[in-house]
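Question thread 4412

I'm putting together a teaching handout and wanted feedback from people who do this every day. The idea is simple: show students a protein as raw sequence, then show them the structure tokens that encode its fold, then repeat with a second protein so they can compare. Below is the first pair exactly as I plan to print it.
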Amino acid sequence: SFQGLGEEGLKMLRHAADRYGLGVVTEVMDPRDVERVGQYADMLQIGTRSMQNFPLLREAGATRTPVLLKRGFSATVQEWLLAAEYVLLGGNENVVLCERGVRSFDVVTRNMLYLAVVPLLEEMTHLPVIVDPSHALGIARLVPPIAAASIVAGAHGLIIEVHPDPANAVSDGAQSLDCAQF
């Protein structure tokens, strides 16, 4: 439900990243915001709900800022790869795919994480693939074993939610590891 802090939040991210030698990866949702977000971010994230926002994909493709493309929660692998093509066709070859699960009939976890897609994509595309077990599962205690399984499956990297006090996080506390767990 937390919608972020807009440009003030982008400034805060950039300041923290510069201070600690980190990169900024942040979500952009509107094609009109790509240029502004790109002024602060080292990588533009296209989230699951925006994976089929074709004007956004084209605008991100017109930049040279790397793009993290999360799989839509109801997208097939083919649809996901075609979404990546929108970015690539714009001239931006810096695309990373992120598996974060798809919706299923089973509600025991937030989504169904499809780890078989990691080695399959190795055969289907040249693009790197990372896995986001935090968002896929929505349950912090499941993140470490699934993160390990993701690496074994061949993932090039992981997104792990970490918060110093998950119980009091403004968003995503249930899926966040605390610092010691991380």
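The second pair follows. I'd like the answer to focus on this one:
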Amino acid sequence: VWERFQTTAVIVGSSVLLQLIVGFLLALLFEKAFPFRRILLMLVLTPMMLSFVAVGAFFRYYYEPTFGLLSQAIRLFTGQPFILLDSPTGALAGIVFADAWMWSPFVMLLVLAGLVSVPKYLYEAAEIDRASWWRRFRTITFPYIKGLLLLAILFRTIETFKLFDIVYIITAGGPGSSTETIAVYVYRLAFQYFRTSQSSALVYILLFIVIVLTNLYLYFVKRRAAEA
């Protein structure tokens, strides 16, 4: 059980961090107006509208060593097929990339909402004072998006902690049990091994962890409101 919890923690930490970085960079990109911005924004938001099964099936074929796009691209340089999912590290990386590809646009939307809400006169005053880009970000931009970033971290941590569909479709928990998350393990216990009592106990543990994460978020929100 603890091995599955550790695997889940690695996937959650890596995926949420990657989503925050990519989502923040995309929000900075779409904050400014440029040609074909609306069309490009629609394309970027498309992964978030797909189902987990569709994303899992897409990346399963994307990572396929015989005709997958990733293997074909690497074959041009090495002359050999590339099998990403044959090692625990590669399989974890494949799952993290698939989940981040799907949900980075969600983080982007939250951050973009915060960036748009920043009053323009604050940036104008900072330019008059000749403040650097980092100082403007730290003193003006970040306070406006900090609450939304916390909300994004909460939502994505809870959802990634329950990740099942993508993992089961891409790797089925393999190789071995190296990518078997706690959600996949609960499914196996309940529907393959018929150990319903143990699976029910694990579900209660998952519920407790989600409640703890939610209360931590509410604590930080209340503390931020008190400081304001």
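Top answer:
Good format. For the second protein you could add a caption like this: The radius of gyration is 21 Å. The chain has ten helices and no strands.
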